[in-house]
Amino acid sequence: MTAVKVSPKFQVVIPKDVREQLGIVAGQQLAVFVYEGRIELVPLEPIENLRGFLKGIDTTVERDPDRL
Prior knowledge:
Elements: H1 16-22, E1 30-35, E2 38-43
Antiparallel strand pairs: 1-2
């Protein structure tokens, strides 16, 4: 586990090995969440990169009769 320190301006540096594993680059946006008492940073993908990621998904689901 790699530890980081919060600066006086409340900034942290993402360690190089973590940036490389996740492909995080300078200027990239991250979503910040508080979850179960911890901070989570999630890299945001440009919408163009998400095109087609559900291709081939099974859309046949059982529906309630009043939800057609």
